[in-house]
Amino acid sequence: MQIGNSVYTANMLRTLLFLPTIAIAVFVSALVSTGQRNARIKHLIHSSSITDQISGISLLTSHSYDVCLAHVSPLLKDETLSSKKAQDLLVAKAFQENRVADLVGTGIDHALLQSALWWDAPKNPQQPFSFPISIQNSSPWVPLLSAFYDTKFGQNNYMELVELSMRDRDGSVLLFVLVMNKLAPEKIESLIRTWETSFDFEKQKTALLLRALRGLPINEIHSSDSSLQTIHSILKEKNTMLAWRSMHREDGTIIPDIALAGMIVDKIKYTPTLIESVQQNLWVHPEHPILLASTFSQEIALQIPTELLVNDESRQKWWALFACGLLQEGR
Q: For a surface tag, which of 33, 62, 195, 243 has the fewest beta carbons within 10 Å of its beta carbon?
């Protein structure tokens, strides 16, 4: 019995003697691994290849603000895609660590800096965006746009709005779909059943997009309309690649209904594409992408001043604030 206890005691002593050695080995291994990782990041970021630089930036996502700043500082004043990625990373880290004020003097883009400071400051509640209109004497898109921003106006004039043309100025149904979805969700399924059996392609397309937007099953369709078939394939197969490939007209501008289908399928993946298309001035009607952003990132859009929606110059600031709001949210 005593022999057994002695052996056990000896084994315990050997184990205890080895613990510091094991701890040191683990520490040294972690240190070497961290050093190698930092060396790789530094090598990639200082490469002349933008692809390498972006790869290096992607390796920093789990690091602190200070570590990120130390690595990406050489890129901040460039006007390249890697510089934009570096600035976005730094701003996102600043939001995470409540260090937005520290962004001053880093050299990031002035508009991005001002947007970050704006999000970091207290904000007043936004008032509904509206303007005086007459449904009878206006083009259909005018009261529909007003109804999107002013829910009270939309609900008071719901029956008249439902009877308006679904086609926007560029032939899209995006505005009509988003307004109907917002104003009367309890009536949507009834509208869908009525419109999806219509011979009118616009009504069929509206019903299909509303069905997907409400998370309802996507039924098979029997239509010769190519745009309707494309939208159905995107929604049925959840195919964002098809949405990306088919969302441009021959002149390069965006097809709003395709963009809506892409956002429905995967808003996280498709939102950067939406912002890029706005920056490239690819929308015939600039209110359409704002409607998409306001629908799929409502919590961000609702905080941005609605007075920025009135002209092209102020809309650029709206988009700068929106993109920065995504960074604050961690997207």
A: 62
Question: Which tens digits make up the pLDDT trace of 237-294?
Answer: 999 899 999 999 999 999 999 999 999 999 999 999 999 999 999 999 999 999 999 9
Q: What are phi and psi of 93, to 5 degrees?
A: -65, -40
Angstrom distance (rounded) from CA 168 to CA 190: 23
Judged by DSSP in three states, 7 sits in helix
Instruction: Note the helical H segments in 48-105.
Output: 50-58, 65-72, 81-96
User: What crossing angle do the helices spanning 174-183 and 201-213 adopt, rounded to 10°?
Assistant: 50
Q: Note whether 258 and 243 are within 8 A (CB).
A: yes
What is this structure's pTM?
0.84
Radius of gyration for the alpha carbons in the chain, expressed in angstroms and rounded: 27
DSSP, collapsed to helix, strand or coil, labels residue 197 as coil
Instruction: Please give, one letter per residue, the 3-state secondary structure of 13-64.
Output: HHHHHHHHHHHHHHHHHHHHHHHHHHHHHHHHHCCCCHHHHHHHHHCCCCCC
Contact 264, 212 (CB under 8 A): yes
| Neighbour-count burial of 256, counting CB atoms closer than 10 A to its CB (0-12 exposed, 13-18 middle, 19+ buried) | buried
Q: Which of 59, 119, 85, 148 is nearest to 276 (CA)?
A: 85
Concatenate the DSSP letters of all residues of 101-131 into one string: GGGTTS---HHHHHHHHHHHS--PPPPPP--
Q: What is the DSSP string of 222-234?
A: ----HHHHHHHHH
Decide: helix, strand or coil at residue 248. strand
> What residues does 248 pair with on adjacent strands?
254
Residue tagged 């260090």 (tokens): 99
d(CA 289, CA 273): 11
